[in-house]
Design a protein that fits this description.
three-stranded mixed β-sheet, mainly alpha, 106 residues, 5 helices, Peptidase M56 domain-containing protein
């Protein structure tokens, strides 16, 4: 995992996992264990789906929820990958014990 500070790219987000990088808006986020665990969960999801299908699935799901009338925030939080990451971001042993395609259980 490589962490890159990219404030201009991340106007609307604190960070973003783009295999194999974690892009962050501010340097101090590297020390935020919960934030970094959340992004590492996304890296695992991306790896399991061989990267490109992850992004396609992510955008399709976001688009689906937006067309159902969800707000941007609610659509984002409804994506299966985000549900798994948010549910487990405080569990620092989660990635050690996580089952393959764990996002399907979220």
């Amino acid at each position: 995992m490589i962490c890159i500070t990219a404030p201009k790219l991340l106007r609307h987000f604190s960070g973003c996992a783009l295999w194999p990088f974690i892009l962050i808006k501010q340097k101090d986020l590297k020390r935020n264990k919960v934030f970094m665990n959340h992004e590492r969960i996304h890296l695992r999801q991306q790896l399991e789906l061989l990267v490109l299908p992850f992004y396609i699935w992510y955008m399709l799901e976001y688009t689906y929820y937006r067309t159902k009338g969800y707000s941007k925030q609610k659509a984002y939080r409804s994506i299966v990958f985000e549900r798994e990451a948010y549910q487990n971001e405080c569990d620092f042993s989660y990635l050690k014990n996580r089952k393959f395609w764990g996002f399907l259980k979220s």
